[in-house]
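Action item from last week, closing it out:
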Amino acid sequence: MAKTPHGGDPDRLLSLLPTHLRTRDDQSGGALRAMLSVVAGELDLLEQDLVDLYDGWFVETCDKGLLPYVADLIGMAEALPDLGEGTSWRPVVANTISYRRRKGTVAVLEQVARDVTGWQARAVEYFRLVATAAHVNHPRCDRPAVASLRQSDRLDQTGGGYDLRSDRANPPPEVHDLTHGAFEPLARSAEVRRIGTGRGRYGITQVGIFLFPLHSCQVGTADAVDRWPQARDTGTGWTFDPLGRPTPLFPAMPRERGAQECLASEDELPVPLRPRRLRALLEEARNGVLDPRHLPLGVRIGRDGDPLPPERLRVSGLESLEPGKGDQVCVDAAAGRLTVYRDEEPLKSAEVFVRYHYGRLAEVGAGSYDRSEGLHRALAADGYGNEGIVRRIDVRSNPGPQTPADSSSLAEALAGVEGFQPPDGSPPEHTLVVAIGDSTSHVGDLAVAIPKGTRLVLVAASAPHRVPASESAGLNIGTACVTEALLPHLHGSLTVTGGPGSSLVLDGITIEGDLTVSAGKLARLTVSHCTVAGRVTVARDAPRAPTGIDSTLRVSLFRSVVKAVELPRSVPALVISDSIVDARSAGPAVTAPGAHLSISGSTVRGDIQVRSIDADSALLDGLLLAENRQAGCLRYSYLRPGSRAPRRFRCVPASAADSGLAPVYASEKPGSPLYLSLAHTCPAAISEGGEGDTEMGAHHHLHRPQRRDALRRHLAPYVPAELEFRIIGS
């Protein structure tokens, strides 16, 4: 067992010497102690090296840089490339010997896919779904050649999660695309076409590996009812999504995996919540088998109401209302909608609060996921660094003894920012944090005036229990804020006025209106992990400077979704990173005639007008007009034909013969988990044309093509002879 280092303390060495030597050293000024202190420091370094050397022998504890050497010891000749966020080669190296012991089984194919890609996976042996002429002594009742209409649950899985007898017409097709037929239960006639070509599936020698790159995120918890968000009233019902968008509900994830020899089931995969699956969960809760707190959704009526029991939650199209039950709610899981009934009559107006799970492909836009790393990057790019804050203002709509707050209104908290006086001794440039600690919808337009030399951080974050607001001064933002499990919503527009040298950082906020910078001298505007349904605009005219640049305002978008960006000629810089700007048919996407646009790993749908541009792995799905084409460069990006752009390097289309290439999206609906992700039918020049052979656009950082390629190479040694596999999904 390795020893623990002692931190350079010379006393442990002095204790080994005779007492008279220690006494004489104390009397003579401590020269011996000073010398042993240096020796002890070197000894600590040597002991730490021994600890690291011991840890390096084990894949569970070794440093990331040692993984290739451990892989070489077990005979892995394959290089270990970087596959992006959320992936690690550690489980692959750790389980390789286990893979080899179970080589040739379908279960190991599924586990390899899960460990390599970091996504959930399901393996399907298609020979089990081929209809055959059964022997009379050995009937195969599990795969009949003719579908039974009485087995409604099997037909439900065939239809992509919808009740085929439902009266709801035209269900969103992308919900079925999320499963790609991985749960197809019906037998089919044999196909001659090979699965490797992507045209055939059902054959004796064919295996499908389904990847599920989505993640299930929770909004609201059963233990904190006061933090549930308010459902959106649409006039004919309510939606779980705060912006009123059709969004499929997801089950609670993840559930613990069973034995590795068992294939993944629907309960263990991030797939949309089927109506019949929701009804089965509700039945379990009604019968006492399942704790109601573990249901994937909850509803309560009124701010002081209790969560409705499972008996009052009904599934639209599958269950009817029960008389005499009082308030009841019909839930449409496929579209994320609900209808409230009181005494069996539709309720027209009420305050409805919900908790639910939704699906996401990437951490882009506002969400209830952990945004701590993204906030740190946004603060570093803001220019102020990550200095200690002078104060944190906690905002909660329903503060309590266990969760105190400085204000119950966001408007009140922002109004107090203008008159805020930093304590004596504060630096000239200081940071003020306004933390929204719940998922409440704040109705109405808001305005904030930021004083001179102040950086305001408006963030969706709760306060650590150990750090009250009164003791937050001097702490860095990461220590003073917990940025997860929250989805606040501003039902209106936000107007910002800044003093000289001021800055605004928004993180984790959903803004339904516009984000506008009005007259003032705001120096920096950073929008990180936000969803702005309106436009980000700067409406001001500063006096023209002698250099021709009228302002020092820098606008930055990180991992955000906005409708459009409009900047006057006075703004010189615009940065868009890993974001989506989707103007669609609403006009230009980016209008910044005086700005230099730096865009990387982002998707822009709409026309772009800028002074100059640098682009990297971007998807510019609109006409680009750059006034200065002698500066800047476009690399590994898609550019619509007819654009006026600077020099290009490995861009698409590369020639006139490729002018017909265009991106194909899996979904263009903002509420879909696959929103503006590239479909599997997208041309390879775009889906694999980004830097490093990854995809262009906002999902560039996921490295999906690299994950698929790495999986193909690692699966090949474990596939039985004569069998052929294909990776489906992702």
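Closing note: The longest helix spans residues 31-55.
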